Amino acid sequence: xxxxxxxxxxxxxxxxxxxxxxxxxxxxxxxxxxxxxxxxxxxxxxxxxxxxxxxxxxxxxxxxxxxxxxxxxxxxxxxxxxxxxxxxxxxxxxxxxxxxxxxxxxxxx
Amino acid sequence: xxxxxxxxxxxxxxxxxxxxxxxxxxxxxxxxxxxxxxxxxxxxxxxxxxxxxxxxxxxxxxxxxxxxxxxxxxxxxxxxxxxxxxxxxxxxxxxxxxxxxxxxxxxxxxxxxxxxxx
Lengths: 109, 118
Fold this sequence. Notes:
The structure holds 2 protein chains of 2 kinds.
Chain A: E1 9-11, E2 18-23, E3 35-40, E4 47-50, E5 64-69, E6 72-77, E7 86-93, E8 99-101, E9 105-108
Parallel strand pairs in A: 1-9
Antiparallel strand pairs in A: 2-6, 3-4, 3-7, 5-6, 7-8, 7-9
Chain B: E1 3-7, E2 10-12, E3 18-25, E4 33-39, E5 45-51, E6 58-60, E7 68-73, E8 78-83, E9 92-99, E10 105-108, E11 112-116
Parallel strand pairs in B: 2-11
Antiparallel strand pairs in B: 1-3, 3-8, 4-5, 4-9, 5-6, 7-8, 9-10, 9-11
């Protein structure tokens, strides 16, 4: 299976909002509300920030929100802060007990 | 506090083998599905394999089927990834992670680097 499609990079100024898209197919994103998002700072392990499309784990800022429409999921970060500068990855259940990641998006603040 | 600590990475020649380990603590290991995810240098994340709580069900990405084997020892709170016939394209940081019922990977280790080169 091909990776989910994400923009290679996005940028925004402090205080602004940005949205990162994640496009899959009817076999993955479109079929399951099992999309998660991960934040990865350079040299660090990924960290879960959104699960089941829009839910936030305890401790994750409410500035992070998720949504989905059809085969495309989205991550929105509002009130951008310098510490949000990182790589972001979407991930979807793809059936048959497999997972599929997006190619990743580099956020520059 | 959940802790996952990978080990076993290193420099291996093409065609060689390696066994990665992941030591788990701070949670009831035997009740969690576990996963391996890898990341080639400068590239994105790639899911590699999942294993059910008692080790009876195992699933792999197509590109590693037949060469990688995921296993676990619940008595030792440990997860393993046996890798055979290593290729240059297997060069990556390998992470272990807990897989929640909603298919999110909610806890990650710091990773272990595998370099395949002659």
